[in-house]
Amino acid sequence: NGLVRIDAGPSRTISRLSSLDSAAQETAHDRPDALPNGRGVIFTVRHRPTSTVSLYDIAVLDLRSGKHRILVRGVLGRFVAGGYLVFVRADGTLAAAPFDQDRLELTGAPVTLATDATADFVIGADGTVAYVPAGAAARELVWSTRDGGITPVAPGWQGRFGGIALSHDGLR
User: Fold this and answer.
1) Rounded distance, CA 123 to CA 170, Å?
2) DSSP letters spanning 98-146
3) How crowded is residue 27: how many other Cβ atoms within 10 Å of its Cβ?
4) How far, rounded to the nearest angstrom, does the alpha carbon of residue 127 sit from its chain's CA centroid?
5) What is the spatial distance between Cα 71 and Cα 99, in angstroms, rounded to a whole number?
6) pTM value?
7) Which of 51, 94, 124, 140 could form a disulfide with 114 if both were Cys (CB 3.0 to 4.6 A apart)?
């Protein structure tokens, strides 16, 4: 399925935003992230076979033209204020690359932030990234700073976490 938009007005009009590219064997567009300037949407493109996450891509939809294009191979991507695309690859690499939201394109090479991430990550308003590490039987939530520092959110609090989100003030 492609992406759709539901207008906030009283009519609640539903309109199609993107269409699947059958020649590229696209099977779904999901996990959308609207750009703050209203010019585009970052999203995940799934390909056949759908169970092979190493074939997923991060794309951008140009809302003016209705066309989308692939930015980078990845499972989930999010725009960060200040001009970055943060994304996770199927191998667990969490990376950031400079992204121009007006031109809808990457403007530099990706930099690795972590090598043990799952596709479960969030970004606070100040750019702080929280992610669920992969591969551990017991997991813990951690705060990760831009300089690579890691601090447990609650020492000793371990389990299997999913669907994490930061509060708007970045404190919880």
Assistant:
1) 9
2) EEETTTTEE-S--EEEESSEEEEEEE-TTS-EEEEESS-SSEE-EEE-T
3) 16
4) 13
5) 10
6) 0.77
7) 94
| Cβ(75)–Cβ(119) below 8 Å | yes
Alpha-carbon gap, residue 71 to 144, rounded angstroms: 25
- Which residues, listed in sequence order, are joined to residue 162 by a DSSP beta bridge? none
Q: 2-58: per-residue pLDDT in tens?
A: 999 998 888 888 999 999 998 889 999 999 999 999 999 999 999 887 667 788 999
pLDDT digits 0-9 by tens, 49-100: 766 778 899 999 999 999 999 999 999 999 998 899 999 998 989 999 999 9
Residue 52 contacts residue 91 (beta carbons within 8 Å): no
Report the alpha-carbon distance of residue 133 to residue 83 in Å, rounded.
25
Geometric angle at alpha carbon 145, from 108 and 81, rounded to 5° = 50
CA angle 26, 73, 41 (to 5 degrees): 70
| CA distance linking residue 122 with residue 107, whole number of Å | 22
